[in-house]
Amino acid sequence: MEKWYQGEWGLILGSSSGFGLATAKKLAFRGMNLFGVHFDRRAAMEKINQEISEMKSQGVEVEFFNYNAVDEEKRKQTIQAMKERMGDAPLRCILHSLAFGTLRDYFADDAEEEITPAQMEMTLNVMAHSLVYWVQDLRRENLIREGTRIFVMTSSGGGRVWPHYGAVSAAKAALESHIRQIALELAPYGVRANSICAGVTDTPALRKIPGHEALIEGALARNPSKRLTTPEDVGNVVALLSHPDAAWMTGNVIYVDGGEEIVG
Question: What is the rounded average pLDDT of the residues 115-135?
Answer without folding.
Answer: 98
